[in-house]
What does this fold into?
Amino acid sequence: MKARIAVLGGDGIGPEVTAAAVRVLEAVARRYGHEFEFVEALVGGAAIDSSGSPLPPRTIDACRTSAAVLLGAVGGPKWSDPAARVRPEQGLLELRRTLGVFANLRPVRTQREMLDASPLRPEVIADVDIMVVRELTGGIYFGRKTRTAHEAEDVCSYTSAEIERVTRVAGRLAMGRRKRIVSVDKANVLETSRLWRTVVERVLAEEFPEVQLEHMLVDAAAMHLLRRPASFDVMLTENMFGDILTDEASMLVGSLGLLPSASLGETSVGLYEPIHGSAPDIAGRGIANPFGTILSAAMLLRHSLGLETEAVAVENAVSGALAAGIRTADIAAPGTSSVGSRAAGEAVIARLMA
It folds into this structure.
């Protein structure tokens, strides 16, 4: 297979972790006889510094002409002035809108060798396997925004069509898993959540009658993610709730650095990125955890390129490295040694090529 992949390193540790993932994808190409072309472009703060825009036209062109997009992270203190009219995060939101990626998949899976990395008791987090499906292009992040000296407004809005299409994604995923969906909302307070609940019920009843649906208020979901995480199968959420809950869920596996994501739309072109931020405090030190980005590359192989065997091989290589005790600083036990970003990536490549 020949495929063009846009690589947007972004800010902070983004370039470091995407470099590790690119090396893994290059190893996949060597092992399985593929030809991947990588096209680098700027996004976020780095793009602002270069062109004044967080998402320059050249970056948009690179993404639109590629089979998939691999992203690091955006933002940092340099561009964090609340009064700034141009911010790195605007580039990320506009990229999602431009690519039409409305469903964000965030798998959360624990493995026995890593139970000690979580602050929760091992018996609580054993056998956790959750797929969070987060609606990505609607809600309060994309609603109308106004601000004066003494008042600000962020409008949260959803249409039935937006809810229908992300529910179908969750339904298809649930059918290949344990056929259970927990839909997260705040229907006791919000009109958008009441519409969300009504539409989710209708779509699942009409199109996925075998799927068992449970509604859960977002505050209860936050509690049960820590109390009984293994009870969740597919979790369906609107935009902001999914953003917050998956950061919480990262503590089940031990670190934000371990969780990947895939943002998908109606076409095969997807956006793949770890769920962590740019971590400017450790940028340039070579100690960032690349596993979440490497696992995002595995999702790229699966969802945009249709290479399931290769995706599973990468995931198994990451699991093998973790099982062998390969730990970056964020997941190393106190008093034990850790490896840097490049060594962690090389450990994955060694297992992949073996």
Remarks:
- The mean pLDDT is 96.
- The CA atoms of residues 5 and 66 lie 5 Å apart.
- The first strand starts at residue 2 and ends at 10.
- The radius of gyration is 20 Å.
